[in-house]
Every structure is written in structure tokens, then in C-alpha cells.
Amino acid sequence: MTDSHDSIEPADSHGHGELVPDEPIANPGLPAHEPRPTDVDPAKEKRAEIQVAVLFALSGICSVLFVVSYFTFDVGDNWHVVGGLGASTVALGSTLAGALLFVGVGITHWARKLMGDHEIVEMRHPAYSEESDRQRALEDIKVGFEETGIARRPLIVFSGVGALGLLGLPAVVYLRDLGTLPGDKLEHTIWGQGGRKITIVEDGEEKEITVPKMRISRDAIGTPILASDLEIGDLVNAQPEVLFNPTRYYMEHADVEGAELQTHKSKASLILLRMEPGDIKPGKGREDWDVNGIVAYSKICTHVGCPISLNERTTHHLLCPCHQSTFDMADSGRVIFGPAGRPLPQLPIEVDEQGYLVAQSDFTEPVGPSYWERDYERDRFAEGD
Amino acid sequence: MMKSADVASTNGTEPATPKKGAKTAGVVATWADDRLGLAKATKGMSLRKVFPDHWSFMLGEIALWSFVVLLLTGVFLTLFFDPSMAEVQYNGSYDPLRGVHMSRAMASTLEISFDVRGGLLMRQMHHWAAMIFIAAMMIHLLRVYLTGAFRKPREINWIIGCTLLLLGTIEGFTGYSLPDDLLSGTGVRAADGFMKASPVIGTYMSFFLFGGEFPGDQIIPRFYAIHILLIPGILLALITFHLILVVYHKHTQWPGPGKTEENVVGPPLMPIYMAKAGGFFFIVFGMTALLGGLFTLNPVWKFGPYDPSKVTAGSQPDWYMGWPDGLLRIIPPWETHIWGVTFSWNIILPILVMPPLMLTVLIVLPFIESWITGDKREHHLLQRPRNAPTRTAVMAALITFYGLSWAAGGNDIIAIKMHLSINQITYFLRGAVIIGPILAFIITRRWCISLQRHDEGKLLHGYETGVIVRSPDGGYAEKHLPISEAAAYTLTARDREEVYSSNGAADEAGVAAPGGKKAEIANKVRGKLSELMYADNVQKPTAEELHDAQHHADHELHELENQIASGPNQHGPTSDH
Amino acid sequence: MRLLNRSAGRLSRHRRGPIAGLVVLLLGLLMTGGLYAVFAPAQADSTDSQEELVKDGRELFLVGCAFCHGQNGEGVLTQDGTQYGPALTDVGAAAVDFQVGTGRMPMATPGSQAPRKEVVYTDAEIAALSAYVASLGTGPAIPDAELYDPDTLSSEEYDEYVVRGGQIFLANCTACHNFEGSGGAMPRGGYAPKIRGVDPKHIYEAMLTGPQSMDTFSDGNIPPDDKKAVIAYLNTLEEQPSYGGFTLGGLGPVSEGMIAWFVGMGGMLAFAIWGASHTTRTSRKKDGADA
């Protein structure tokens, strides 16, 4: 009846007529093998063979087309375009896909239609080892352990474990130079570089000067902002001027380039908003932090640090595009929605003699996401700094 | 094992006598065997090893082949990619960024995209393959769980599988970060936030990983080493071990005529399975090429280089990181400031607690189940999800939680595409992630049980023919016919389940179970859980019940037909009987 | 192949001699002066035609706008004190040109945000409406083409503008409008609209006036030349081919994930089901064999 009969060991010893008392139906055993049309009809078989060959041939054609496309379609600064798409990518992708898919489909078709399709039966063996093997292995382990004398020599065991444990120290210490220590870096931003006192040597004479207060510049454009330039409803994405003009603040270009620049931006980025002065509800001690309705807040979300600038002009609600924390910019950056746990830090601002917006000081609390050591009590650490 | 001639004889016109090719193969094989003893090795793993055929057994294969595609395309990308954060002025082919300062990583990504022919295709294929790799692992995991394929002796492979899912996700995230474009930088920025929120060591972790303050100039080279060396190495080793175990345990199979716990039935490795698996590799590779050629993935040139002050709407991670990102979106603003330190629950819970917790739950599920059922036997026949209602319901609850969190990760896109308010979506999901899984558990469990009832009905009363007959006295009835023996056997080829009784165990021993109070409580819990697991399930009928029912059905059918035959309605739909 | 063409990567239509740019510039300057004379709201000695325009505009206003914005554009409050239609006294001509020119006004139904739709007024009517509203008070005038049209730039200038504009765009606009200008979600059901396929003039006016809930980017915020750079960049985004194939709506990883699951996994599953399915069987026996 079944072709599995001629296969291996008595595979179907189980079942087959004998009824296990609890079982309602006996295992009827493997059904008889039914031939496929391709098994019995030479014409169908031939057709399947041709189909497979055609599929393989199509794959070959695709491979050739791939090579042709590779050398035909330009990339670089002047792409060939097909139907608005980059011709090179689409042509290379489709021909490569064709070359691969036709082979895959061809092989599968071959296996399904032409290769022998008899199911065969293989017996399983439990995963565990033979009892004798197990005994032997256990015996080996036992003998081995006895020969070490581990049970009789606790001194060796303890000192050995201790030594291995201490080896963890070099492993950990070795990683120390992966990075610098945090120190108080997270508590300061480059805004604090404005208005600092430094000593310079001029004409062989040491003298103490005060660096100008940090002007607020337009991000990406780089120009400082006159308070009178802004209209009600304006939102400016801003940066400290030092990033564009370091010498004015007695800093080197190298201080605001590459990784340094990125680090400064990751803390100093700013949002400026000008609203009706009457709309602002200044926080306690923040009465003089705005200029004529212009307020400045950190652009770095206090949740996980995304830059935020999705402001609704009409409501002064600022939304974070990453996790939708929403802050009220008219009310000390209070969180009104979403996962952020703290208000956006506000930057106290004023205007300098020329009318440009400047920061009164650094932020008065750490900007950006929370961190373990962040001490809420010390939020005003930079007062008067 | 079966002689090859047996198969060849059924293979149509292809004669069994070896042709020239086979002779050459023989010569090569002999040459190799003289030196390597390869034939000896086939004693351990026969070339005619059986692999049962079922589409659901191909899911893991999608993952496997995607991984191979990842290795191939990844190697190509390494030939051009420069994992450095040194600042350069871009001077390549893409006009709108010419002159912009960026890292060499970003510049070389642009070079791959615009100046290397087929480079963009490779980038996109690599990225698509990564998304599919993880998707396939997840679907494969679901298949294994829902069919009970994780049971003894396969628990270790289950753990390896879960680990692979975790590693694949980390591998994906590090890869997503490498181009140093705006999107990947935003992701890394968030990862920095996650690290800093970790209690005690958080800030130090961040400073050590980034080589100083975020973002520094170390993170890309470090991620690169992790991405192309460390994790792929571990993945490769674990996948190899995973496959060795599949071979050693032999594949599970669906119950059916001739299939038992002691055998495995299917086509042999050589040639059918080799051909199908090999063919499937080309199909997976080809599909990836098709995706890579037709669909733009991560257009870095539009994002521009990473700049901590820039961001774009629709900043999302790749899909597999979507669910923790979703939790991060719907978590309420919980932060505790106490003893001069900050507990950022709004990060700790969704990122540092939930994903590890989810993974742990996955890993321990098989062990919890075997503890409740007390079943320590080997299992090689798969179960239909309906035949393990509580297990299926547990996964439904987990998946519902996953799915809702995932939806939360796209709440902004849902809002604009469906004209909803993100605030309301967020409020809704805050409740739904808790209520949804509970509902899913209850509904799925009851659903499975009613499917079991349906199966029982088919066994006992036959299947519904759709033929309605009217009896002479005006009653209507649907005619049922018995199902085939093979179908009936397949339905009954499952274990009878017994609810574990904690009292029973104590009684058997005559005294209270050893281990004192603690063991007693554990025993009680086990009893309760076993009740939840089994008490409502429909067990297969005994031989006697089946016999009675069939007898009864025959009788009814007979009676019905008699009535029809003697009644006025001779032209009923059953008249041909 | 007709479909096949060289890309607009270099934007051939911007490739013209430097003289052409100069001519356009001069023309633009001339027109600026002319238009300013026509539309400048503070012009005390407005010509007859200007007066007529305002008069026409007022008539149109009374029919189409006054119901919500008041007879004299003073705005209308609802019973509970919220705005039904805001006051238009100081919004300027640019705001009217944007709102009416993109079909946002008149609104089909009162709501928090007016969607872009079919434009109902003719260009002449829009000009009249703008002139009328401009006459009510202050506010930005309709910009002239020289300010916003990237076509007025020479090829070299254009490239430089695009690069600069891209950086300004990413710093100021993408947060709401997305990296491809596909738009994004805002609080409480609001949204930042898609800004692809929008007339450069309207983009400029939107920046200038801050329609609906959008912030304004006045000339003191982003100087006119930089606004033009942003428009040039948007222009490039729209004109460049999608190098990597279909863009999936330019929504980022969410739509990519959907493709991975539905097309990628879906396609592979279909192949898997086909590969593992049973082939056709026959009850025929092979001629004279087996048995």
C-alpha cells in the first residue's frame, strides 16, 4: 500500500490497527503514495522539464541585463531617470531580483514536479545518551575530580576562586580609558562662556577683561539677532554666536569644530519665541528673563534629548517630534502633555548695547535628558555665574 | 537507509543508471573521502535525513537566508564605508549637500549611494534584509510557541532563538546608527538619554560608550566594531548551534496518519529538501533585491548629516525598536527626585525594564508550562494552537501588548493619516496596553475552546454537508456525514490532559508533600494554574464515546432517509442516496 | 525609451547664461517697483485702479468672508468668547493671497484648521480681496517673484542657494513638515500640512505670515534671501528623481516597516506556502510500470 513500506526499519510499528485502549481511532498509517501527473505522463514531465529550463534561462537573461544596466545607467551627479526613479537602482535591483528569483523558482519547481517525491520515514531517538554512555561519562568526571583532589583541598579551591575573581578587576579597569569622566560637564553649556572674566596679555601687560555676553544667533544662518527684528509670532531656532564667531569670545576655532561643535550644539541649542508680552506668565524669579515678549528656551527635550521646535503659534505649545512631550512656552516651559518629567530649561536673556539679544548667563539648570546624578535641589547652580 | 535506486525508479524517465556526471561526482567524492572520511560523517547525519514539509517550517529559513544576505551585502558595504567621525566637507556628487560639513561616515554613505554603481541598491538591500531578518525571527518564534515546538527536548533551542532575537535587534540598532545621518543621530541621542537614565552608573556608561560627552567622535567606530564583528560573530555561532540542534532533535511534525512521536515523515534532505531550501535562499535573496531596487529605504541624503540641533517630523526607529519607542511615548511623565538623585521612571520603565522583562517572560514560558503540566516527556508532534487554549491566549495577550505599544510608536503617523489627535491616541493607548492584553487573553482562550468544540462535533457527528432535508412532519435538519478516517485520526492525535490536583499529590504520598509550607503553596499555585490551563479544554472522546456517537448519527441519518423515502417529498436534495 | 531622460540633478532648466539672470533681475526690480506702487498698503495717493480694486475686494469680502471675519474684517467672536473668525485688520495682503490662493479660505466648515483645497476665486478676485484687506491696516504685502522664485537664480547661484536652503530647512522646517515636506502631527489633532507641490509664492507667504498655527518667519527671523534658499531646496527635493525607487510617501521608518512586513514578509510567505504545498496528484498509473 504505502511506499514507505520499502523504507527503512519498521517505521510504522506504532499504530496500524492496534488500538491503544484510550485512543478513539487507531493510527491508519501512512496513506498510499499518489503519483503526480509528471510521474505518469511523459508529456507532462517533458513540459515541466522545459518550464524549469525556461526559468533558468530567464535568470540568465536577467544576469546579462544586470551587467548591461550596470554599464548603461549613470549614477553620480547626473543620474539616468526612468519614470521619476533612479534608473540604476531600479534596473540593477529588478534584474538582480529576476536573476535570483528565477533560479529559486526554477529549483523549487524542479523539486516539486520532477524530483522523487516519496516521503520517507525516519525513526527518532530520544535526545539523551545511552545509559552506559552516561555512566561512563559520569565515571570519567568522578575519576577526574578525584584525581584533582578538589574535595580534600579547600585551600586551593578558595584561593583559586579568589584569584579568578580578582582577574575581573583588570578586565574592568582596562575599560577605564574608553571615555572621560562626566565631572560637571552636563551642568554647563557654552552659553556660560559669554560674560566670563579672563586674563589676557596685551602689550606685555596682563589685564583682566570681561568677554562680551553671548549673543544669540540664527541657527544655520549664523547671524546675531536684533531684538527689534523679531515680530510677534516669530520662532527662531538659535545657537550661541560663539559657534560661528569664536574669536569674539576669545575662543579658538578648534573649540567649536567637529566633535566639539556637536557637543556644544547638543546642549546649547535654543528656541526663541516672540509672543504678546501679556501672554507670558513669568515663573518666580524669572520676571526679567524675557525681552519684550521674547523668551528663550532650551531646544533639547528633557525626556531623552530630541531637539524640539514644533510650536503652535496660537497656543505657545511646543511639541517634541520623538515622543510628543508638549511644553507651554508661555508658562516657564511647563510640561502639559507627554512623557517628559521636567519643564524645558529657560535661558534668561537681555539685549546688549547694539540691541542684539544676548544671554544673561548660562542656563540655570542642566539641559537635556535626566541623568542619575542630576540634583533637583541644585538646579540654580549657575546663579550669577 | 533507503537505496537511491528506489527513488530513481519512481522518478519517471530518468533512469537509475548513473550517467557521466554521476561518475565524475563519484570520482570527486572518492578523492575527498580518501582524505576526509566524509562518508563516515554521513552516519551521524544521513544525506537522506528527513525534513517534514510545511510552509510554517520555512519561517526560520527566511530568517536564516536573510542573515546570509546580510553577510553578503554587508561585506560589500564594508569595502566602501568609512566608520570615522572626522569632520570633512562633502564634495561628492549629491549637489544639495555639497560643501556641507559632515562626518566621514556620512560622506562615505553618500558616496556608496551616489558614486558607487549599485551601491544604493546594496545599502537598501542590506537594510531591507535586516528588517526582514528580525520580522522572520519573530514570526518563527510565534510559530514555534503556538505549536508547542518549544517543549522538551527543544527548550535550549528556544532560549537560543530568543537570544538571537535580542541580538538581531541590537545589531539592527547599531547598523541604523552607522550612517550618521539625522535619523540615526536622533536614535543615538535617544540611546544616550536611555543610558543616562540608568540608576547609579548611567552617566558613566554614557561617557564611556561615547568616549566622553555626547556625541563625541567615538560612537560610530565603536558601533562599527560591534556591528560587523562582535554581534555577527555571536549570531553566526548561535545560528550554527541552533541548526545543529535542529538536526540532532530532528524536525517536529504535524500529527497525521502514519506520523507518531517516534518517527519523522517527509522528503529526504538530498535532494528534495536541499533543492527547496537552496531554492528558497535564492527566493529570499531575490525578494530582497526586489525591495532594494523598488523601494527607497532611509534616504540619508534627504536627512542630511547628524546635527544635534536638527530634527524631522516622523523621527522613528526601525520597526523592531518601535514598541519600546511606543511605550516611551505613552508613559506618563513620572520622575522622582529624591536624595539628590533622579529616577527617570519615564525612561527606566519603558526601556530598561519592559524589553528585558518581555525577553525574560519569553525565555521562561516553556519552563513555566512544563512545571504546571508536570509533563517531562519529549514531544515531537506539534499541537494546533486551539488545542492549547491557555498557551495560545498567553501569546495573544503578549502580542496584543506588543502590537499596541508598536502602534503607539507610530502615533504621529496614525494621527495625520487618520485625522486623529495624538493626545487622544496616547490617552487611549495608555489604557489599551493594559486592558487590551487582558481582553485578548480571555477572548482567545474562549475562542480556542469553541474551536475545540467544533472539532469534537465533527468527530462525533460528522461534518455539515450544507444539505437541508425536510421531514414529512415539516421539521428541517441538516445532514451530517462522517469525516474521513484520516481526518478523524488527525483530530484525535493529541494528548489527553489532566488537571493537576494539589490534594491528589498529597494524598498519594499519604502525608503532606515534602518541602513544608513553601512547597505546599507552590503546589497550590500549580494546581490553580493547571486548572486555568486545562479545566475548560475539550478532551478528545474515548473510543466508546466515539462509537456511541457514530452509531447514534448513523441511526438518525437512516431514520431521516427512511422518513424522506416514505414521505411525499421524493425529490428532495437527498433523493440520489 | 521615452520615459528615460537625464535627471534634473543639475536642473537643466536653471542652466542659462549669466546674462539671462541679469535680465531677469532687472526685470524683477522694475516689476518690484511697479507692483509696490500698485499694492503698497500705506500708499496715500493710490491710483484710481487701486481704489477700484479695493472697492471690488470689499464687495467680494462682504459676500464671501464677512460672515466669519466681520463686515469690516474686525473678526467675530462666538458666544463663549472664542474666535469664530479672527480679525483681519493687520494681517496684510500676503496672508489673504496665501489663504485664498491655496483654497484654505473660504473654509467649508468652521474648524480649528483649514485644509488646502480647490481654489474658489480667480486670480483677479484674489488680488482684489488682498488689496481690500491690505487697506484695513498693516501687514506684509504680496511678495514679488524676485523674492521667492528660484528660477531667477543663475545656475551657480542656484546650487549655492540649494545647499544653504537645505540646512535652513532642516534647522527650521523639518521638525513639523518632515524631511521631505510630507507634513507631520501637531498637538490635539492639528497637523503641519504637506508642502510638496506648493507654489513657491505661497511657501514664501506662509513663512512670512504664519498661517493657522504656524510660527511666523518674518524677514527679521529668516531674511528674504534665505527664504528663497529654502524654496530653492524644496524645488530641488521635488525635481530630483527618487534615486532609490518609490518613496513610500516620504514618511520615514513607519511606512518602511509596513513594506518590510506586507511586501517583504508577505511575498516570502507566499513563496514558502507555494514551495511546501502539495502538488497535483493523479489517480492514473504509469503506463505498464510500477503497480
Automatic annotation (TrEMBL), chain A:
Belongs to the Rieske iron-sulfur protein family. Its main location: membrane. This is Cytochrome bc1 complex Rieske iron-sulfur subunit. It comes from Nocardioides immobilis. The chain crosses the membrane at residues 52-73, 79-105, 155-175. GO terms for molecular function: 2 iron, 2 sulfur cluster binding; metal ion binding; monooxygenase activity; oxidoreductase activity, acting on paired donors, with incorporation or reduction of molecular oxygen. It comes from the Bacteria. It is a multi-pass membrane protein. GO terms for cellular component: plasma membrane. Iron-sulfur subunit of the cytochrome bc1 complex, an essential component of the respiratory electron transport chain required for ATP synthesis. The bc1 complex catalyzes the oxidation of menaquinol and the reduction of cytochrome c in the respiratory chain. The bc1 complex operates through a Q-cycle mechanism that couples electron transfer to generation of the proton gradient that drives ATP synthesis. It is found in: Cell membrane. Keywords: 2Fe-2S, Cell membrane, Disulfide bond, Electron transport, Iron, Iron-sulfur, Membrane, Metal-binding, Oxidoreductase, Respiratory chain, Transmembrane, Transmembrane helix, Transport. Residues 1-19, 33-44 have a biased composition (Basic and acidic residues). Residues 1-44 are annotated as: Disordered. Residues 289-358 form the Rieske domain. PROSITE patterns: RIESKE. Its cofactor is [2Fe-2S] cluster. It holds the Pfam family Rieske.
UniProtKB/TrEMBL annotation, chain C:
InterPro entries: bc1_cytC-su, Cyt_c-like_dom, Cyt_c-like_dom_sf, Cytochrome_c_Oxidase_Subunit. It is found in: Cell membrane. The chain crosses the membrane at residues 258-276. It is an enzyme of class 7 (translocase). Residues 52-137, 160-238 form the Cytochrome c domain. It catalyses: a quinol + 2 Fe(III)-[cytochrome c](out) = a quinone + 2 Fe(II)-[cytochrome c](out) + 2 H(+)(out). GO terms for molecular function: heme binding; iron ion binding; quinol-cytochrome-c reductase activity. The keyword Oxidoreductase does not apply. Heme c 2 binds at residues 173, 176-177. Keywords: Cell membrane, Electron transport, Heme, Iron, Membrane, Metal-binding, Repeat, Respiratory chain, Translocase, Transmembrane, Transmembrane helix, Transport. It comes from the Bacteria. PANTHER family: CBB3-TYPE CYTOCHROME C OXIDASE SUBUNIT FIXP, CYTOCHROME BC1 COMPLEX CYTOCHROME C SUBUNIT. The cytochrome bc1 complex is composed of a cytochrome b (QcrB), the Rieske iron-sulfur protein (QcrA) and a diheme cytochrome c (QcrC) subunit. This is Cytochrome bc1 complex cytochrome c subunit.
